[in-house]
Structure prediction request, 238 residues.
Amino acid sequence: MKRRIAILTGAGVSAESGISTFRDSNGLWENYKVEDVASIEGWYRNPELVLDFYNHRRSELAGVRPNGAHITIAGLEKNYDVTVITQNVDNLHERAGSGRIIHLHGELTKVRPENCCNENDGFSENSVFDIGYGPVHLGDLAPNGHQLRPHIVWFGEAVPKIGLAIDAVERADMMLIVGTSLQVYPAAGLYRYAGKDTKIYIIDPKDVPVHDPRITHIRDVATRGMEKFMEILDGSRI
Ligand code: OAD
Prediction:
C-alpha cells in the first residue's frame, strides 16, 4: 500500500509561475483592501468591484503555467497516495497533473448563483459551473435567475471543505506545507491534526510562525525546496 502524504499549499507555490502572493511586499493585499474584494460584506457593498478583482485574477491565470514545484508535487503520486489541500484558487495543481485536490478557498474558473452553495443547501455544488478564464459582470445571471458570483470562499464565510482536509491530514504518514504564511484559519491550524509522530516539512523562503518538534523548515523557494524535499524522501524510509 502506498504511504500517504498530505500537502498544504498557499500562494507561495504559485509565485514562481508569476502569480502574486497576498502578504509579501507588493502582494495583493498591499494593493487592494481585503475587506473590499475578498469578504462577504464587500460583495454586498460593491459586487462590481469584487467581480472586477476576480476577473483580473482569472485573466492573469490564463497566461501562466504550472512551475516545477506543482509538477514535482504531481509526480509524487507515482509512489505515494497524495492529497493536495490548497488555499489557492488557481488551477495550477490540476494543470500539473495532481489527481486529488481539495480547494479550501474555492476556484477561480468556477461560478455559481449567489443564492446557492451555502448553509441553506448544505453547501451543495450542484449549481456550480465552469466559466474558464472569461469575465463575469453585474447582471450576468445563472439559470435560476440569480446573479452569478465567483465560487470563492470569502472572509466571513464558512470553509465547507475543511472537514475533508482534516481527514486527509489525520490519515497522512507525512505532511508537507509549501508557500503559505499560515496566517489564515482554519487552514493555518491543519498541521495540528497530523499524528504525534508524523513528520511535517515546510518549504518557505521566510521564517515560519509555528514551532513544533515535528516540523522541519526547508528555507527556500518552492521549486528548489521541492528538489530538496525529494532528496529527503529518497533518503528516508517513508
Ligand atoms: P500569503 O501571501 O499570506 O503567504 C505566502 C507565503 O509564501 C509567504 O510565507 C511567503 O514567504 C511564501 N513565498 C513567497 N514566495 C515564495 C516562493 N517562491 N516559494 C515558496 N514560498 C514563497 O499567502 P497564503 O498563505 O496562501 O484567502 O494566504 C492564505 C489566504 O489568505 C489566501 O488563500 C487568501 C488570502 O487572503 C482568501 O482570499 C480567502
Notes: The two ends are 12 Å apart (CA to CA). The chain has a mean pLDDT of 96. Residues 10-12, 15-16, 21-24, 27, 34, 38, 87, 105, 153, 155, 179-181, 183-184, 203-206, 221-222 surround 2'-O-acetyl adenosine-5-diphosphoribose (CB under 6 Å).
